[in-house]
Design goal:
single chain, 228 residues, mainly alpha, Tetracycline Repressor, domain 2, 10 helices
């Protein structure tokens, strides 16, 4: 069954959110107002109020749209990769590239995290909910990589996810603030180092056992010679 065609109101709301998301990624959510959107969309303020009753409602709707587009550009494509390290790597690479694919100047989720980390209210609660869900998805991806045997069994999935987020945050800062053209490359190197530290290796006992076997063999031969 084909999906139903969006209503006129849904189409209008989608256009508004597209403009709002682009503006928020450039100027921040505090600069996102009904008046600003009226100017950029050519709609009346009363028409915009019909879709968003307040500035806060507009901000939350814009954040929700950012998350939807992130999932569409980063998470969903990564799910096509085999579970484990390939999927985790795909997710990381998609996360670095999603803003360019979405034609955004910066990551609107990171912008929201910075703006509302110390401001109580409904918008902050929405940011916390989305970022916690993202963190848990990262943790689950790392846990799958442990389960496939590609990461060592004692890998701390929470710590790994924490460090991935740190790498991504640093990458976005370098790209936006310093205009660093090598930011993505540096981020990928950092990710590769994390992976190298977590990759499962043969145990010490397994490595040492052949040497012990050889030593035992020499001992047996020596005892055999002495009895002759």
């Amino acid at each position: 069954m084909s999906p139903s065609k969006p209503s006129k109101g849904e189409e209008t709301r989608a256009v508004i959110l597209k403009v709002a998301l682009r503006h928020a990624s450039m100027a921040g959510y505090h600069a996102l107002t009904i008046g600003v959107l009226a100017k950029h969309t050519g709609m009346s303020k009363s028409g915009l109020f019909a879709h968003f009753g307040s500035k806060e409602e507009l901000q939350i709707a814009t954040l929700d749209e950012a998350v939807r587009r992130f999932n569409e550009a980063a998470f969903m494509p990564a799910l096509s990769a085999p579970r484990g390290l390939k999927r985790l790597s795909a997710l990381f690479d998609n996360w670095l590239a999603w803003t360019a694919r979405a034609d955004l100047s910066a990551c609107p989720m990171m912008v929201a995290s910075t703006e509302f980390d110390d401001r109580d209210g409904a918008m902050r609660e929405a940011v916390i909910e989305h970022m916690q869900r993202l963190h848990q998805s990262l943790v689950k991806s790392v846990e799958m990589t442990i389960q496939t045997g590609e990461f060592a069994a004692d890998t701390d999935a929470e710590q790994f996810a924490f460090e991935i987020f740190g790498v991504i945050s640093s990458c976005y800062r370098s790209r936006s603030l310093f205009r660093d053209k090598d930011a993505n490359t540096r981020a990928r190197r950092a990710f590769d180092r994390l992976v190298a530290d977590a990759v499962a290796r043969p145990t010490t006992s397994a490595k040492a056992s052949p040497k012990l076997s050889k030593a035992s063999s020499r001992t047996v031969r020596a005892k055999s010679s002495s009895t002759r």
